């Protein structure tokens, strides 16, 4: 496996400045590049690279000259949003990203499953987490049968036609939010649909990562390295479902943390070992969203921990096949 980084952590830097900054971390040999949607596209011009072979070649050469490989292109969004204008915009970025990934020789594209409304007349997404009252079960069935499955059958086929694996990041707030829903979508939409495994979205749900990894197996197309710390006192009082602002750090049940500041090194070794057993041999991509640590503090802590956890080797071609 290789150690990588997801580029929004360097959103304020140009591509050249980011590549210079990464020289501080020689252990990092891969980069995940945002092309639009929520991660933004701070380091690549998606349209320019699609329209110009020279632009795409120049971008790829800059990455390679810095001693890096591209682990994935990421375009997190909601392509089944009930507002059709919003949904179309996310779908357009997704399809452009798939085409560019093929052009650059990148095998994985990361995004969200999305979340529709609870019915055809709704205008905002509706994340449903309970089967009762009974209308919730009806709404959830409608979401999957009328929106999610039809979209991802088509989108998955599009990705497969371009040789791309779709790494759906299971994230609360969207229809795919845990291992079970990830595998449900894969069963319906085909094997070009897999998962971007992010432990930070699983820990607070009470999911055991090695068990989840064993269950997901070959469906793991890409991996994020981000941690979560639970405030046991707040959990004891209010549980883990927490819609308070991330700025209310002392009041929340859990917070995103840098790797090693939520779970210890042994836990991350358990994750790395489980990934090996599952056949995953690609990149572990560090994502920094720790409000308690600066970029250099958080990234440095993650690199230090993960460098002791994984034995870096070049990624295997078509690891999910």
UniProtKB/TrEMBL annotation:
Organism domain of life: Bacteria
Protein name, per record: Sugar phosphate isomerase/epimerase
InterPro entries hit by this protein: IolE/XylAMocC-like, Xyl_isomerase-like_sf, Xyl_isomerase-like_TIM-brl
All residue ranges annotated as the Xylose isomerase-like TIM barrel domain in the record: 52-299
GO molecular function, one term: isomerase activity
Keywords: Isomerase
Gene3D superfamilies reported for this sequence: Divalent-metal-dependent TIM barrel enzymes
């Amino acid at each position: 496996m290789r150690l990588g980084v997801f580029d929004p952590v360097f959103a304020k830097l140009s591509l050249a400045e980011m590549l210079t900054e990464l020289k501080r971390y020689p252990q990092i040999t891969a980069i995940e590049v945002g092309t639009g949607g929520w991660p933004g596209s701070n380091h690549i011009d998606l349209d320019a690279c699609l329209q110009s072979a020279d632009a795409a070649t120049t971008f790829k050469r800059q990455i390679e000259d810095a001693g890096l490989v591209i682990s994935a292109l990421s375009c997190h969004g909601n392509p089944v949003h009930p507002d059709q204008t919003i949904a179309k915009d996310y779908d357009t970025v997704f399809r452009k990203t798939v085409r560019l990934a093929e052009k650059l020789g990148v095998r994985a594209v990361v995004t969200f499953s999305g979340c529709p409304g609870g019915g055809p007349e709704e205008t905002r997404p509706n994340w449903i987490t309970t089967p009762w009252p009974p209308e919730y079960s009806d709404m959830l069935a409608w979401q999957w049968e009328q929106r999610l499955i039809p979209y991802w059958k088509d989108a998955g086929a599009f990705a497969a036609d371009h040789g791309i694996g779709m790494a759906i990041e299971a994230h609360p707030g969207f229809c795919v939010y845990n291992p079970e829903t990830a595998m449900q979508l894969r069963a319906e939409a085909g094997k070009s649909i897999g998962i971007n495994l992010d432990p930070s979205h699983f820990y607070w749900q009470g999911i055991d990562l090695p068990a989840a990894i064993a269950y997901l197996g070959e469906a793991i197309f890409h991996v994020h390295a981000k941690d979560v710390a639970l405030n046991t006192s707040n959990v004891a009082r209010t549980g883990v479902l927490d819609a308070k602002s991330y700025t209310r750090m002392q009041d929340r049940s859990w917070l995103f943390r840098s790797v090693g500041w939520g779970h210890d090194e042994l836990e991350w070794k358990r994750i790395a070992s489980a990934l090996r057993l599952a056949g995953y041999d690609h990149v572990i991509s560090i994502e920094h969203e720790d409000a308690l640590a600066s970029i250099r503090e958080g990234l440095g802590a993650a690199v230090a921990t993960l460098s002791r956890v994984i034995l870096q080797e070049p990624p295997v071609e078509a690891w999910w096949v």
